[in-house]
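Aim 2 progress update. The chain analyzed this quarter is reproduced below.
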Amino acid sequence: MRYIALALILLTVSGLFAVCDTLYLCSDWNLISVSVVISGTLDSLFEGIIIYDMIGGSFIPMTDTLIPGKGYVAYPVTDTVLVFCGPPLDELPVTEIKSGWNLIGSNWEGWIYADLITVPPGIIDTTEPPRKYECGGDYFSEDTVYHGQGALVFAVDSGNVTTAIEENSPSAKPEAIEIFASPNPFNGAVRIEAPSAAKIEIYDVNGRRIDDIARRVQPDEAISPNQGDCRALRARNDGGAVFVWRPGESLGSGVYLVRATEGKETISKRIIYLK
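Predicted structure tokens:
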């Protein structure tokens, strides 16, 4: 199995909630990230370990300050265990990518293609799943990139990539929009609660839009989305709406992403379908 193992340790550091990434590095290539908020230089944090970045298929030696969440290639002389503790990293840092294979790190919650935002849009080939590396083995594909890991994605053009970042300006609405889904995981259908004015979309792990619940409906009016059935149950007094989504027969078990957009604000929630 993979030699990058991840451990979650809960502790309190100076009154702050903190978590720990435990990285098991073998004496081979390791695709990693540090998904907690810490500071220090790569030389001091990875003493005696060669560190590279990969941009556009090229390896670039790295010796500067650690960027939490950024992907790195680590090559130790011997098997090594490193533990990094700090507040969990919420979002990916803005990462430069170029045409070809690029190394992307991870925030604490991890990501799938639907979580990524690129500038310009559409420059990552989502038909190529993220690729990880098994020490002493070969590359393998896996849809979800977890904290502490790094993965290669293929870009068709140059630009930047990150995950969704909430607006934090004085003009932003004080109340953030929210999505609720239950049961989660679900089998036949999932109940989704979201703002009635929001555009609701459902994506698969490759970033492909499965359903677009864009127009508002009357209670119990059927919607005809692309890959499933959705029915509006009722409007809530607080301005929200309740839906029930049933995946189409062609959809398999796995992780899906419900995304709500209202004005300039976007929020996402993972749901797990067990067929």
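The chain has two domains: 11-163, 180-273. Residues 1-16, 165-175, 214-238 have pLDDT under 50 and may be disordered. These observations will guide the mutagenesis experiments scheduled for the next reporting period.
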